[in-house]
Amino acid sequence: MAISAEWQFAAVVILIYLLDGLVLLHVDEAVVECGRRRRILFGSQQPWIARRRVLLLAPWRPLATAWKLGWGVRDTLDPPDGTDVARALLDARVRAIARLAPWVCAVWLLVLVATPLTLVFATIPLFVLVAALAWLSVWALVLRLALLRRALDLSWSTYALVAFECVACPPVAANLPRKLSLHLSPTIDLMAFVDAPSRRQVHAQLAHDLDARLVFLDPDTPAHARTAAYRDLLLATMEAEA
C-alpha cells in the first residue's frame, strides 16, 4: 500500500523535530533538564553512535531546557568551587529562555500540528495559509530571540547560526529552548547540580561508569587508584544513605 505524499511530508516534519531533540553524550557527560522540575539524564546505558550515549529529549516538553555538563574523578562529593555562581547563572538563563515560551508554543502548534493536519485533511488554500502563519511565527520567534541576546550572553555568531537553522528548517525552531541551553551550558562539574532527590540515581550511574572505566586502566597507575577511590566513595555514600 502506497503512502501519500501528504502523509510522507507530515512524517518528515515530525522526524526532523525528533532528531533535533537527540543529544549525544560522552560517558562523562549528562544533561540537566529544567522544566517543572529538575532532572539529571544520562541517556542510553551503552554507547550507540560514535562511542557516545544517545538521549532523546521528551518531544512533548519543548519548553524544558537541557544543559549538558561533564563530570570528573574528584576527591570529594561536595559541590565544586563556583557552584553558587553556576547555579545563579543557569537560573538566570532559564528565566530568560522562558520569556520565549509564547512564541515557542505558537511555532510548535503551527509547524508540528496545524501544518501537517491541514495538508492531510484540509484544502490546499487553507494549508497555504497555515504554512504562511507557521513561517511568520518562526520569524517572530527569531526576532524575539534577538531582543534577548544580551540577557542570554549570546554571541552574534551563535545567534546567527541558531536563527539560520530555525528559518531554514521550521521544525527545528520548535526545539529552540533546548537548542539554546545546549549552546549555553555552564562549564562546571555535574556535582554542582546534584540535589537530594537525584543524588542516589547520579551516584549509582557514576559508580557504574567508573567500574567500566577501571577495566581499561592499568592497576598500578595513580589514575586507577584515584578512580577506584572515587568509586568507593560513591558506593559508601549510597550505603550510608540507604
Describe the protein in words:
The chain has 242 residues and is mainly alpha-helical. The chain folds into 2 domains: 5-190, no CATH class; 195-241. Helices cover 58% and strands 10% of the residues. The protein has 9 helices and 5 strands; from the N terminus they run αβββββαααααααα. It has helices at residues 5-20, 83-98, 101-121, 124-147, 156-168, 170-173, 176-183, 196-214, 222-241, and strands at residues 22-25, 29-34, 38-41, 53-56, 65-70. The strands form 2 sheets. Strands 3-2-5 form a 3-stranded antiparallel beta sheet. It has a two-stranded antiparallel ribbon with strand order 1-4. The protein is elongated, with a radius of gyration of 21 Å.
Instruction: Indicate the percent of residues in helices.
Output: 55-70%
Low-pLDDT parts are: none
- For the termini, the CA-CA separation is 56 Å
**How much is the radius of gyration in Å?**
21 Å
Structural class: mainly alpha
Strand percent estimate: 5-15%
Total count of strands: 5
Topology order in helix (H) and strand (E) letters: HEEEEEHHHHHHHH
Q: Main β-sheet: number of strands, strand sense, barrel status?
A: 3 strands, antiparallel
| Tally of structural domains | 2
Number of helices: 9
Shape: elongated
Largest beta sheet: strand ordering = 3-2-5
Mean pLDDT: 91
